[in-house]
Specification:
alpha/beta, 5-stranded mixed β-sheet, about 30% helix, flat
């Protein structure tokens, strides 16, 4: 099924027998929700419900919503499952593919990537094209690595906003195939390798120097926030109840360390972390987010106090040095 620029592969045969299905769509697909519902109702004869809540990835499964609506299946679009995330509820994942011109992508890499021993990574929308890109590049003299990640990574070469473990440490450089700058910047910080970012939609290649400059600016912002958090006495420790973001163990460890330093803290549990919601609890000097790293990194300007990650908290209390900064990841 083609909807806009997406090719959607719904496993209709696997949906037989379900009576009420909750579908969960990322923001880019919600405009097609009514079309998807019509097709699903026709093919399955089930009651089809759609979640209106934001969907940030396979870490953000709407299981609670499905249970509250008496659904017997959650149909999650656009992401690959997280293998080490165990969910006690029926969930099926729908592949959403953005087709790319493999020949043009290959040519762009050859024209702009000088290193010959490279690691290629991408997001779920393009993952099935990596092996074809590798074969084309190997014919043109490249040694290409598409490595497996840790237990959070469903397929070799897949990267998430919270996990870059599939990037080969043996490669000279990394080529990220996908849109946006967050992933390549995160890879640059995590690996300290040259990172090229190839956008298969605009067909542009961003150089390692540009990505490195973005990474340096991000690290400077993070150091500013860590420094601004020094002297804080009252901390809000944020925990997400999303299945793949819940790090209560990390939150409890942070709270214990704060208690040892005679600092006040409060663990706040929520679904989607929103600054307006936090204002209801009064003033905090600093927030520590144990949820998705992107909340602290992308949205820090929205908060009334500095918001830092668990890794940055280690720097704040002296357990880690500034020059040993690493990207917060969920494994």
């Amino acid at each position: 099924m083609i909807l806009g620029s997406y090719r959607i592969e719904i496993p209709f045969e696997e949906l037989k027998g379900y009576k009420r299905i909750l579908i969960q769509l990322p923001s880019g697909l919600k405009i097609y929700a009514r079309k998807i519902i019509d097709i699903l109702e026709e093919k399955t004869k089930a009651d089809i419900l759609v979640s209106s809540d934001p969907c940030f990835g396979a870490c953000d499964l709407a299981v609670d919503t499905a249970l509250s609506m008496d659904a017997d299946l959650l149909l999650h679009f656009g992401h690959l499952p997280i293998p080490n995330l165990k969910i006690d509820f029926p969930v099926k994942f729908v592949d959403v593919i953005m087709d790319i011109d493999v020949s043009s992508v290959t040519d762009l890499i050859v024209s702009g990537v000088t290193e010959k021993n490279i690691s290629i990574v991408t997001t779920a929308q393009h993952i099935r094209y990596l092996n074809e890109i590798r074969k084309n590049l190997e014919k043109r003299g490249y040694r290409v690595r598409i490595d497996e990640g840790d237990g959070r990574i469903a397929q070799p070469g897949l990267v998430l906003g919270c996990n870059f473990s599939s990037v080969s440490r043996d490669a000279e450089a990394v080529v990220f195939v996908g849109t946006g700058t967050f992933h390549p910047v995160g890879i640059s910080i995590s690996t300290r390798k040259p990172v090229y970012s190839l956008d298969p939609v605009s067909m542009t290649l961003t150089s390692p120097n540009e990505i490195s400059a973005m990474a340096d600016r991000l690290i400077k912002r993070r150091f500013y926030l860590i420094t601004a958090s020094q002297g804080s006495e009252n901390f809000g420790i944020l925990v997400s109840k999303k299945p793949g973001q819940n790090r209560m163990d990390v939150a409890l460890s942070i709270r214990k360390k704060l208690e040892e330093k005679r600092k006040k803290s409060c663990i706040i549990v929520t679904d989607t972390i929103q600054p307006d919601m936090l204002r209801d609890f009064g003033k905090f000097d600093c927030f520590i987010s144990t949820a998705c790293p992107r909340i602290a990194l992308d949205d820090h300007e929205m908060f009334d106090a500095p918001i830092i990650t668990p890794v940055e908290f280690e720097i704040l209390i002296g357990e880690r040095k500034f020059d040993d900064y690493i990207f917060d990841s969920i494994t």
